[in-house]
Amino acid sequence: MHNATGRQLKSSSMGTALLLALALIASCAPSTPGPAAESFKKEVQATKESLAPSLMDAMANREPRSARSILERQCALAREGGRPFSCGITVLNSHGITLASATPGEPIKRLNYSRYEVVMKALKERKIVKAKLYLQDRTTLCIVGIPLVRKGEALGLLVLAYDAADLRDRFGLTEEEFLRLDLNG
Predict the structure, then answer these.
(1) Handedness of CA 31, 141, 49, 169 (dihedral sign)
(2) Helix (H, G, I), strand (E, B) or coil at 185
């Protein structure tokens, strides 16, 4: 009788251990994006598709100065079409220097972002990166860096800056959810 009780206890312990292991694996696995995340991903993809091709053409043809006029034209077309871009947009060259910017109410400044780790990572790895940026007025920006790649060469970076409060209001997307998103898939 002692042997049967021992086997039941051992079997019960193994079952519990198996359940705990499965729970641990499930908690480590990336969660599937919810509707808020999917809507945001679609917006980022639509912005990329609207801007990247013409910007890459200008940069590939060694016409980086035309990036500003292209960006201005695309923003005007989006406004006229009733779907203005809901983010600040900056175009950086392959060295992290600002070529164009469409941040509402802000004049263009040729800033050097080459010392920003996230910028250089996006250019080097040729993958979309995300980061949070804190402004002096305590505004949090959720930044998406999209490499402009042609024939394996990073020609520059399209940077989209979303106000974290706007993402929360429009999509119900928290800053933590934003950072967990996979925008490369």
Answers:
(1) positive
(2) coil
**CA-CA distance, 141 to 15, in Å (whole number)?**
46
pLDDT tens-digit map of 31-46? 455 777 899 999 999 9
By residue count, the chain amounts to 185
Quick check: 182 and 130 in contact, CB under 8 A?
A: no
In whole angstroms, what is the distance from residue 146 CA to residue 156 CA? 9
Q: Which of 119, 128, 160, 121 is nearest to 142 (CA)?
A: 160
Task: Check whether 12 has a pLDDT greater than 70.
Answer: no
Strand order in the sheet with 129-134: 98-101, 88-93, 153-163, 140-150, 129-134
Paired tokens of 173: 């997307």
pLDDT confidence tier of residue 65, bands split at 50, 70 and 90: confident
Q: For tokens 């609207």, what's the residue?
A: 50
Helix (H, G, I), strand (E, B) or coil at 166: helix
**Beta-strand runs (E) in the chain:** 88-93, 98-101, 129-134, 140-150, 153-163
pTM beyond 0.70, yes or no: yes
Query: Which residue do the tokens 């200008």 mark?
Result: 58
139 by Cβ neighbours in 10 Å (0-12 / 13-18 / 19+) ranks as exposed
